[in-house]
Amino acid sequence: MIAIIDYKMGNLGSVRKALTHLHYDSVITSDPSVIAAASGVILPGVGAFGPAMKNIRAAGLDNVIKGIAEKGTPFLGICLGMQLLFDSSEESESVKGLGIIHGRVLRFPSERGLKVPQMGWNRLTKVTGSLLTEGDYVYFVHSFYCCPDNESDCAAYTDYSVRYCSAVERGNIFATQFHPEKSGEAGLEILNRFAGRTRQ
């Protein structure tokens, strides 16, 4: 069973629908015991960094997520769920993130002529992540992007005003700035590769 973490900020239903389409069982939950016992965990997210971390800490989910990372359970962060893995964000300067991936989340520069937020399809380049394929077009909606301290944590890059890290992978931790559940066949294949690891 794959646990989709409910912290009152996220695109939960569409993630579960995509997993059901791929014939994987999943549950939307905020119960720490259910999350800890799951064969895989997904942290989706739509919203702002500060309120999201407040909700996670209020529900006691920060320690659960860190425990999942340490235990080796396959873990996937999506969009805001990727950003929350980092130490901090320009969106909420005084709020600490989960600190599982060291680095910062920065705002796209608005002076370069491209609309912020980035909304729509864009390409993955310089792909090293095991869940991803070079050149895949995937769907993004975001105003902030992640900058890992360690370049080896970055599994793919995307160009939008700047070249930025659009996916990370380290051990059992995977995360994508884009929405695989909204990215057509390429996105479903990424989810399928992740979910397949929960059965190993």
Number of helices: 6
Helix percentage range: 25-40%
- List the secondary-structure elements in sequence, H or E: EHEHEHHEHEEEEEEEEH
> Structurally, how many domains make up the residues?
1
Q: What is the residue-averaged pLDDT?
A: 96
Neighbour order of strands in the largest sheet: 2-1-3-4-12-11-10
CATH third-tier fold name = Rossmann fold
What is the β-strand count? Answer: 12
Gyration radius over CA:
15 Å
Looking at CATH, the homologous superfamily is Class I glutamine amidotransferase (GATase) domain
Shape: globular
The CATH architecture is 3-Layer(aba) Sandwich
Q: What's the level 1 CATH class?
A: Alpha Beta
Largest sheet at a glance?
A: 7 strands, mixed
Q: Return the structural class.
A: alpha/beta
Termini separation (Å)? 12 Å
**Strand content range:** 25-35%
Give the uncertain stretches in residue-range form: none
Kindly describe this structure.
The structure is a single chain. This protein is α/β, with parallel strands linked by helices and 200 residues long. The chain has one domain (2-197): Rossmann fold (3-Layer(aba) Sandwich). Helices cover 28% and strands 30% of the residues. The chain is built from 6 helices and 12 strands. It has helices spanning 12-21, 32-37, 49-58, 61-71, 80-83, 184-197, and strands spanning 2-5, 26-29, 40-43, 75-78, 88-89, 103-107, 118-123, 137-142, 144-148, 154-160, 162-170, 173-176. A hairpin with a 2-residue loop joins strand 11 (162-170) and strand 12 (173-176). The model has no long low-confidence stretch (mean pLDDT 96).
